[in-house]
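User: I'm putting together notes for a lab meeting next week and I want to include a structural view of one of the chains we've been expressing. I don't have a solved structure, so I'd like a prediction I can at least talk through. The sequence is below, exactly as it appears in our construct file.
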Amino acid sequence: MELSPVFYSIHSSRGRRLESGAVPREEVVTLYVNGQPLVSIMCLPIQLEELAIGFLYSERLIDSIDDVAVAEVCGSQRCIDVWLEHDIDPPQFRAITSGCSGGTTFDDVVHEQHRVESSLHVTPADVLRLMGELSEQAVLYQKTGGLHSSALAEDGSLICVAEDIGRHNTLDKIAGLCLRKRHPCGNCLLLTSGRISSEMANKAARMGAPIIVSRTSPTSLAIELADAWNITLIGYAYGNSLRVYTGEWRLQEHKS
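Assistant: Thanks for the context. Below is the predicted structure for the 256-residue chain, given as structure tokens.
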């Protein structure tokens, strides 16, 4: 999902010339639940049904795909219409942005309890290999830049990948994909190109993912929460090195 605007390319030695190139498409998409607007999301308008389902799950408005009667994108691609099997008392309408400050969540993540129980172990080599595969499968990023990507990995292979302008949106898309496939995440690695903030840790914990891997840094609160929730938190995973901030016991030098 991309556009090709015209722009001036200016180089210190070659001067100025008119060119065109691909950039990611950004849209405001409104999520309606049971006929009422719940939230507007700035996003890349693909995998929208999965984005909506994953967001509702992350915010504890649903517990499984069985709670969803209908999820469909309207013809204009500007709204997602979800009807649930139960009524909800929706929080105040909020907007989610894709900026560096992250997204909006209705959860009070500091007071949430998400202890993740899993005996999953991985090797540093497998973590780095999977991060490399995530980069290879981020096909829209390779065309346009300016996107985040996330993936879920199980038994040494990526099983689903999502891209979006917002790092939070990529995790909601992964959650939605897993809910639709009824695929549990308790023995999976969650990999992402984006910074791990407290909201990102909260979404991962809600999914039950015991290991979170990022190409960049976690925040201090994300580290505190991951430690409290028994999650292995890995950052700066690229090239030949990584940093393990919590749950180091899940990293083994060799496969058992």
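A couple of points you could mention at the meeting. The radius of gyration is 19 Å. The first strand starts at residue 2 and ends at 3.

User: Perfect, that's what I needed.
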